[in-house]
Amino acid sequence: MSARTITGNLAADPEVVQAGNVSITKLRVIENTGEYRGGKFVAHDTPTSHFVEARFELGENAAASLHKGDAVIVVGKEHSNSWEDKEGAKQYGRVIDADTIGVDLSRATAAVTRNAKQE
Question: For residue 58, how far is the Cα from the chain centroid?
């Protein structure tokens, strides 16, 4: 697995699914990518879509805090994965297992509420 940091906007509200006893929060982040050519930034025609999964408190907090369109920063480890779509066809893609998810404060504001410490 390779470490990745991405920035982008949520394509949809977070989705929480159960995998045994563990809740997994799934996010899809759309990243507008580009490159510098001749000293000017040129955006790519098609943005990059990233699949992100968050577990435990991180996933719970992401599901409670984030909504479609929110500007986010995600740090995590990327790996290949496969799954079946709604029609039963096998799909393949890259998934980022999030270690950290935050609001991109260069493009949004946020109010922070700390979690109560568990004893």
Answer: 11
Q: Is 90 a domain residue?
A: yes
Q: Taking a C-beta distance cutoff of 8 angstroms, is the pair 62, 27 a contact? A: yes
**Whose CA is closest to 10, among 111, 108, 79, 113?**
108
Whether residue 101 is predicted with pLDDT greater than 90 in this model: the reply is: yes
Q: Is residue 54 part of a domain?
A: yes
pTM, entire model: 0.83
Q: Which of 34, 46, 32, 52 is nearest to 102 (CA)?
A: 52
Six token digits for residue 86? 């709604």
Residue 87, domain extent: 2-103
